[in-house]
Amino acid sequence: MAWRDSRRSRSRLVLFISSVILGIAALVAINSLGENVRRNIDTQAATLLGADLEISGNQPAPTKLRPLLDSLGEDRSEERRFASMAYFPKNGGSRLAQIRALEGTYPYYGELETIPAEAGRTFRDQQQALVDQTLMLQYDAKVGDSVKLGDVTFVIAGVLLKAPGQTGITTTVAPAVYIPLRYLEQTGLEQKGSRINYLYFFKYAPQTNVEQIVKKIEPRLELDDFDTQTVQGQKESTGRSFEDLTQFLALVGFIALLLGCVGVASAVHIYIREKLNAIALLRCLGVKSSQAFVIYLIQIVGVGFLGSVLGAALGTIIQQFLPVVLKDFLPFDLTTEISWPAVGQGVVLGTLISILFALLPLVSVRNISPLRVLRASFEPDSTAKDPLRWLIYGLILLFVFFFTYLQTNDWPEAAIFTGSILGAFLLLLAMASLMMGLVKRFFPSSWSYVWRQALANLHRPNNQTSILIVSIGLGTAFICTLILVQSLLLKRVTLSTSGNQPNVVLFDIQSNQRDEVLSLATKQGLPIIQSVPVVNMRLEEVNGLTAADLQKDTSNRVSYWIFSREYRVTFRDTLTEFEELKRGSWQGRYEGEGLVPISIEEGFAERNRLRLGDTLTFNVQGTLLSTVVGSLREVDWGGVRTSFLVIFPAGVLEEAPQFHVLLTRVESNQRSADFQRAIVQRFPNISIIDLGLVLKVLDELLEKIGFVIRFMAGFSILTGLIVLISSVLISKYQRLQESVLLRTIGASRNQIFAITALEYFFLGALAAATGILVALAGSWGLAKFTFKVDFTPQFVPILLVFLIVSGLTVLIGLANSRGILSRSPLEVLRQDV
Amino acid sequence: MNSILNLQEVNKIYQSGGRDLKVLDNVSFTVEAGSTMAIVGPSGSGKTTLLGLCAGLDRASSGSVTLHDTRLNDLTENQLAALRNRYVGFIFQNFQLMPTLTAIENVMVPLELRGEKNVRPIALDLLDKVGLADRSHHYPTQLSGGEQQRVSLARAFSNQPQILFADEPTGNLDAETSEKVIQLLFDLNKQAGTTLVLVTHDLDLAAMTQRIVRIKGGKLVSDDRI
């Protein structure tokens, strides 16, 4: 019976379900991607690390540790990694790069991908370098040109395309330059106080249990602050970060699916209303209410299954393109295969969720009286009071909750997500109703009939206006938030460099270079806004307890994590205008008696549960220094300036190995380039951060992240547009009747066209405006509370989004209404329009 | 008396299942301005098709239809729409109100379509005449069948039509409501001096008009003046 009843409306049923196809496609695509990522990480894990074991620290391995390192593995390589200026003599360009000085045959797994291919191996034998392709492009450098690092000029042997563990994002932030380690000393860049990472790579024979070896040597390495990483560890950490990414994307896809499902519920509602008389007739002929319910349930299960299969197929196609979208985030080559578990999950999920949402309107079938056959509008709709509806609402919420839990494996997170989804839907619905109400209330009654009719059409019985506003609005909100936040971030950086704020930062200035650098800047007429000494140190003890003691004693108030970082500390006799003493007393100069009184940033002290009077023992490159927390400061972290967690008073660290940071302001790009060139040529070890470059990098980064967000927002908007198409087609009968009636009583074709076009414009405009308002509110909150800047949104891109979304809605609406405009008015006299 | 509607040898042929189906066969008659006339006949006899042709909702396959001295055969769709808006009123069996508009807005539509301003008082006056002034802001779904047909009456008279076409105006109403609606229809018609052409199965209703035209198998079989 279900099959026979659906005979004339199968195509419409498939149309109802079309709005979930995209949601399922998104989920299947992303879950397949997750599966492929896991598989690829498994097969390529060794190439992510490039070795079986990596040991790293912020200092060279001490002599006493050397024998241990020399005893590890079958083959060993060594690398020093640090930031320094790369100078291209050909055109005088220079940029901060990540220098990697390499010795040995690393990587043991995978390779340094270069053009020409052999350069990745041969550069180690000569005074040659591999330069990242972003740098090569930026400075128009060619293989065979030279790059100067410190005092040494290297011939560029090849363009570096890929190195183990590197992603498009990391090369944007810190493009790498590889050189042979044996030339590092000559460059003069390895000076005391420089921030260098020391890495040691080891290759083991296959089948060696590296984890067991690490377990044995780890306590010894920790004594000298060395960390270890193994293939298994790398696999886990890479897997975890991509798990987070795919989880996030899957949840966004799930939102698109939920939007589609609300569209399904609303379409099935209309379908059932049109079937009311057929159902009443069946009831007259002896069909029980439960049988009538099952007839339509079977139809929904059928189309739900079909829609899910189509969605899964589409998702499998889409996932072939995801590696292109995500390539900048992936540290490995992603090969895609059909993921049957993802396809199976998509089909089951799609069928279940279609049924759940369709049940809402379906339950009304049970209440249809056979008397309706004799008298139309026999009884009012009483389904709102049906307790079964509330049960279904509960089931939907539970379903969302369990699905989220399956994705996140975290109960509180799943609860927060479910609550947020519910809240966001209600908020968007409330916004949609508010917007509709306001427009209805304040729309000028003096405007022509065509305009008022178009607006009135949004309230057509069985309309899907709210769900359309919510789905299209949500997509618009995603895109606008992205645009607004992008401009906020850029503005934050631009603002920090406006007025008399510094825009060029020089660091790694050695003490003996300081005066000369200052005079060079002064000679060029540049202001010395800040010149600050920085001393690197590690924490050895807190209140007499070491890291090992604290790790054992978990009841201790002070956090163990306080030991996990390297401290960059300055010393001075006064506090700056950006610091405010909150507790204790500030002592500007240490007179040599008792513990050294230091000042700690208030937030850092709170996070690590440090108090006034706590004693801290620092290791300043071999020398132990006992201090006491004398004061707590509040620090304004905004702006381009040096800020410190820990400050020492004057009279303690003056002779410690240190480097200096200089902040200045250069008015034009040309002068900045001249100044940088002069510094790099004279002091090649000094690194320069040009805020102009930071802005550019930030812009590129946001563009890459933005692409992913736009991709996901696209799902939401597309779902909205598919709901729109199905809504237009579903309401075609009613639209035809209205249009034909208007033709009958004298409306011209142009008037009908204008009413239809304006109706879709209002729909698109309301949806876009709702989304934009949500985005504006969200971005305002971010600007005020997170970025702490004035909120002055850019209206041109927002206006463009508004016009594009409204225009697209009008186009799709009109394209699907073509038949309506050309129907003969005679049809109004006939029942079978 | 002047004629307002004239049909000369009108034929209407539809294609059905690859065959020609003659729905109207050589129909000719003239309707005088201000008169009332009923078209009666069994189901499928061609009544509604005839009404559609008279009102310019459809085109004759051959023959000519002249409404208010204008030959409809020569007009474009938009010209026909403008003519209907100017001279014709309609009442339908299933009321045909715009569900998205209130009662008063439904009455205003024909006037607004022709670009007239300040039409609310006119519409309110008409609703008052059909006894629905107090329900002017209700939507069609909030009105009973009889009330919807009364709104439809008010709309039909809103543009002061020269001729009113009614297609089974009481077909969807119970006896008591039908009586009230018919009374109202004839009263308003009399006041406005409008020509009335109605299609009905109801011979009692037909008998209230001055002339009854009978159609059978697409042919005009009798034309009785009462």
Short description:
Chain A has 833 residues and is of the alpha+beta class. Chain A contains 26 helices and 20 strands.
Task: Give a structural overview.
The complex is a heterodimer of chains A (833) and B (226). With 833 residues, chain A is of the alpha+beta class. Chain A has 26 helices and 20 strands. In chain A, the strands form two sheets. In chain A, strands 1, 2, 3, 4, 5, 6, 7, 8, 9 and 10 form a ten-stranded mixed sheet that branches. In chain A, strands 12-13-18-15-17-16 form a six-stranded mixed barrel. Chain A is elongated. The two termini of chain A are 26 Å apart. The relative contact order of chain A is 0.12. Chain B has 226 residues and is of the alpha/beta class. Helix content of chain B is 34%, strand content 31%. In chain B, the strands form two sheets. Chain B has a six-stranded mixed sheet with strand order 6-7-8-3-9-10, with helices on both faces. In chain B, strands 2-1-4-5 form a four-stranded antiparallel sheet. In chain B, helix 3 crosses helix 4 (120-129), helix 3 (103-113) runs parallel beside helix 5 (145-158) and helix 5 runs parallel beside helix 6 (175-192). The mean pLDDT of chain B is 89.
For this structure, the quaternary state is: heterodimer
Number-wise, the strands of chain A total 20
Query: Nearest-angstrom radius of gyration of chain B?
Result: 17 Å
Total beta strand runs of chain B: 10
Which range best describes the helical content of chain A: under 10%, 10-25%, 25-40%, 40-55%, 55-70% or over 70%? 40-55%
Order of helices and strands of chain B: EEEHEEHEHHHEHEHEE
Strand order of the largest sheet of chain B: 6-7-8-3-9-10
Per-chain topology:
The complex is a heterodimer of chains A (833) and B (226).
Chain A (H helix, E strand, L loop, with lengths): L1 H4 L4 H40 L3 E5 L8 H6 L3 E14 L4 E11 L9 E3 L3 H4 L5 E5 H6 L7 E4 L2 E11 L5 H6 L2 E5 L3 H4 L9 E7 L6 H14 L3 E4 H44 L1 H9 L4 H30 L3 H4 L14 H23 L24 H22 L2 H32 L6 H8 L8 H32 L7 E7 H13 L4 E15 L4 H6 L13 E7 L6 E6 L11 E6 H6 L7 E6 L2 E13 L10 E4 L9 E6 L4 H14 L4 E4 H40 L1 H13 L4 H39 L7 H21 L2 H4 L12
Parallel strand pairs in A: 3-8, 5-7, 13-18, 15-17
Antiparallel strand pairs in A: 1-9, 1-10, 2-3, 2-9, 4-7, 5-8, 6-7, 11-19, 11-20, 12-13, 12-16, 12-19, 14-17, 15-18, 16-17
Helix pairs in contact in A: 2-9, 2-11, 2-13, 2-22, 9-13, 9-17, 9-22, 11-13, 13-14, 14-15, 15-17, 15-24, 16-24, 17-22, 17-24, 17-25, 24-25
Chain B lengths: L2 E14 L2 E14 L3 E5 L6 H8 L7 E6 L2 E2 L5 H11 E4 L11 H11 L6 H10 L15 H14 L4 E5 L7 H18 L2 E6 L2 H4 L4 E6 L2 E7 L1
Parallel strand pairs in B: 3-8, 3-9, 6-7, 7-8
Antiparallel strand pairs in B: 1-2, 1-4, 4-5, 9-10
Helix pairs in contact in B: 3-4, 3-5, 4-5, 5-6
